[in-house]
Amino acid sequence: DSGVTQTPKHLITATGQRVTLRCSPRSGDLSVYWYQQSLDQGLQFLIQYYNGEERAKGNILERFSAQQFPDLHSELNLSSLELGDSALYFCASSLGPDDGYTFGSGTRLTVV
Amino acid sequence: QKEVEQDPGPLSVPEGAIVSLNCTYSNSAFQYFMWYRQYSRKGPELLMYTYSSGNKEDGRFTAQVDKSSKYISLFIRDSQPSDSATYLCAMIRSGYSTLTFGKGTMLLVSP
User: Fold this and answer.
1) Over A2-34, what HEC string results?
2) For A47-70, b where at least 16 C-beta lie within 10 A, e where not — what string?
3) A62-76, B7-21, B87-101: lowest mean pLDDT where?
4) Beta strand A10-13 with A107-111: parallel, antiparallel or unpaired?
């Protein structure tokens, strides 16, 4: 157990639907990062939150949004889902850039 | 040209071999370098982390960074079947905290 908890582990949903992925960071970590992993693109950075504030944005679609709550857990919301959104979504947390990232076990999203 | 290039493999070796995994990068702003191991359908696991040129050793693993050539390596000594996984290099630019990953190299160690 890495200390980063992601739920659910698997999600199957239809095109056009909306889903929410949840992440609880490692105890004491203030930064949460969301990554998408697909076979052809590898691990792509989506968005970072630090202590409740958005800190950096990567290749995140407008249909996707995220937030970090006062207890530091984070949610990634994916809406108007398309077949191409099927991927593994990972959350990672860290104390700072000297700390490295700790990844959760991911949520496998399948859009049918 | 991608910022971080990594041969996808697969790289197949017999048990006990020394394995060399490599990445090249194009942006000299990258200052922190990491290697992650990812087993199938699992989250990446941090193996090695370095921020200076030279070698860093941890058990059977050695990470090497050559900033002048923009080239990093991970060596695995006495490879085991349990080392079979995808190895991802990752980097952070100075002044930032987000990781940029290579696509990963799949390693297969046969008994």
Assistant:
1) CCCEEECCEEEECCCCCEEEEEECCCCCCEEEE
2) bbbbeeeebeebebeeebebebee
3) B87-101
4) parallel
* Helix (H) or strand (E) run with residue B73 in it: strand B71-76
Q: Does B43 touch chain A (CB under 8 A)?
A: yes
The Cα of A106 is separated from the nearest Cα of chain B by a number of Å equal to 6
Q: How far from B72 is each of A56, A109, B30, B95, CA to CA, in Å? A: 26, 33, 11, 20
Whether A101 and B103 lie within 8 Å, measured CB to CB? no
pLDDT exceeds 80 at position B1: no
pLDDT band at B79; cut points 50, 70, 90: very high
- Tokens in use for A45? 């950075």
CA A102 to chain centre: 13
Partner residue opposite B43 with nearest CB, options A42, A97, A105: A105
Q: How many CB atoms lie within 10 A of CB A4?
A: 24
| Residue A38 touches chain B, beta carbons under 8 Å | no
Query: What is the tens place of the pLDDT at every residue in A46-61?
Result: 999 999 999 999 989 9
By C-alpha distance, the chain A residue nearest B94 is: A97
- Using the Cβ of A90 and the Cβ atoms of chain B, whether some distance falls under 8 Å is answered with yes
My answer on whether omega of the bond before B10 falls inside 30° of 0, hence cis, is yes
